[in-house]
Structure formats: structure tokens, C-alpha cells
Design a protein that fits this description.
Elements (H helix, E strand, L loop, with lengths): L1 E7 L2 H20 L4 E4 L4 H7 L5 H8 L3 E6 L8
Parallel strand pairs: 1-2, 1-3
Length: 79
């Protein structure tokens, strides 16, 4: 199974990291293999790529079985 991780900004990063720990534990228990592809979205993407939703993020999501979205946005990017 392939999952695109979109931590986003602020607490989203912590949420996604904790969710990955849970997913890894479940995968181990049930004999599943999970491949993760961490991509940018939101303010983190604006800072790194100049856009809130880079093409690489879209491509990864389209090629995954699932997408895990954290939280997006913050005061830095309100305007």
C-alpha cells in the first residue's frame, strides 16, 4: 500500500508523524507493507516551492492508494 503524507503546517506535522506510528504498528500486526511518500502542501509548500499545491504533490496523491492530510495554514500565510 502506498500512502502520500501531507503534513502541512504547524501541528499537522506532529499529527501525521503520530498517525504514521499507528499505521506502522497496525501494518506490522497484520503483515502489511506500507510505503510512504511525504509531500508538501500549504504554507510549507509556499515557502519551499512558491505555490500551496505543487505538481509533485498532486502526482504523488494520484499515484497513491491513500492520502493522509495533517493541517494546513497559519498566520504567516493568511494574506
Amino acid at each position: 500500500m502506498k500512502i502520500t503524507l501531507l503534513p502541512g503546517d504547524g501541528i499537522g506535522v506532529e499529527i501525521v508523524d503520530a498517525a504514521v506510528e499507528v499505521l506502522d504498528a497496525a501494518a506490522k500486526k497484520f503483515g502489511m507493507a506500507i510505503e510512504y511518500d511525504r509531500q508538501l502542501i500549504g504554507g510549507a509548500a509556499i515557502d519551499a516551492a512558491g505555490v500551496p499545491l505543487p505538481e509533485a504533490t498532486i502526482a504523488s496523491a494520484k499515484n497513491s492508494d491513500a492520502v493522509l492530510l495533517g493541517a494546513v495554514g497559519g498566520p504567516k500565510w493568511d494574506n
